[in-house]
Amino acid sequence: MKIAIIGTGYVGLVSGACFAEFGHEVTCIDRDQEKISRLEKGEITIYEPGLEALVEKNLKAGRLMFTTDFIPGVPEAQVVFIAVGTPASRRGDGYADLTYVYDAVRQTAPHLQDYTVIVNKSTVPVGTARQVARIIGEVNPAAHFDVASNPEFLREGAAIRDFTHPDRVVIGVDSQRAEEVLKDIYRPLYLLETPFVITGIETSELIKYAANAFLATKISFINEMANICEEIGADVQDVARGIGLDGRIGKKFLHAGPGYGGSCFPKDAQALMRIAQECGVACRVVESVVEVNSAQKARMARKIRQALGGSEGGRTIAVLGLSFKPETDDMRDAPSLTILSILLEHGAHIRAYDPQAMKEAAKLMPEVTYCQNPYETCEGADALVLMTEWNEFRALDLERIKGLLKEPVFIDLRNVYRPEVLREHGFFYYSVGRVTVRPRQ
Question: Does residue 217 share a domain with residue 193?
Answer without folding.
Answer: no
